[in-house]
Amino acid sequence: MGNGITDRNIWRWQDVFYDKPTTRGLGGDPYVWQALLGLMESKPIPLDSSVAVSQLQLGFEAITGWRLDAKDRPSQIMTEFEFEHGGMPNGQCSLDVWQTRLMPLLVRRVRASFKRVPQKLANDYATFATRLMPFGLAIVSKQELLRTSHLTSYQRSQVLASISDDLRKASDIVIEDLRPAFVSFAAGRFSDELGTKLELSRTPWHRQPSFDPGRRNLMFEHLNPINQIRSRLFPLTSAEEVIELLWRELRVAWITKEENGRLTRGGFSSARENPMYAYAKCGILLDVSS
Fold this sequence. Notes:
This protein is mainly alpha-helical. It has helices at residues 7-10, 29-41, 49-64, 88-91, 95-115, 119-148, 153-172, 185-193, 226-233, 239-249, 257-265, 275-281, and strands spanning 76-78, 92-94, 182-183, 218-222, 252-256. The strands form two sheets. The chain has a three-stranded mixed sheet. The longest helix is centred in the middle third of the chain and has 30 residues, at 119-148.
């Protein structure tokens, strides 16, 4: 593709799971969809479409306990999401819908994604890399300082805080066009009730007081917590590597304060190895179309 961009730099599971079908079967199916995305994102990037399809099928079995081609499988099951989120209506998953519609849809998207990276996605990545290059260079420089210098604990804490600030500011300069925020369905309802033309997914944190005085109702949340991203960046030694990781992990979401409380009670306030899975376990459905 030129400019150092390869298909492997760009490829993301998120782009396979975009645009959730409007007809999803039973109440638990959207949670399974989101949890499956989270589980896939925790795996190494697949080398080809056959590996990706195998990961999808194994991931679905891990979440539901069933292979879709099992001869003795039921048509619907209860999932792990039944207990926390309103009982049976939310917990039911339709294996029939997954076999006939949802899994074939994901498989088609996976196979298409390995044939050609859409030009818009390639362009977005190129712009993302250009815009975040100064942050990548700064982060690499600060990490080198941490590795090679004898710093006091206070000095180290200030360098680490500066890297965290870099990550937050990097989010701010991509949210309006390149990396819109995810929006929970509950946060979306709050936005709709305001009666304004607010496009929450493209609204940065600093604008919140204009529509949510005192920040009483909503939270601007990094799906992958900042400290978690920072720790994953530490072994990297080039700005290009930093940008590749941020392309996948620098994501934010608007959720409600009540939903944020669920994350905390679920043990996901500061560590989320599979963020989408964690949100699903806590009954927080996100729009993954961004």
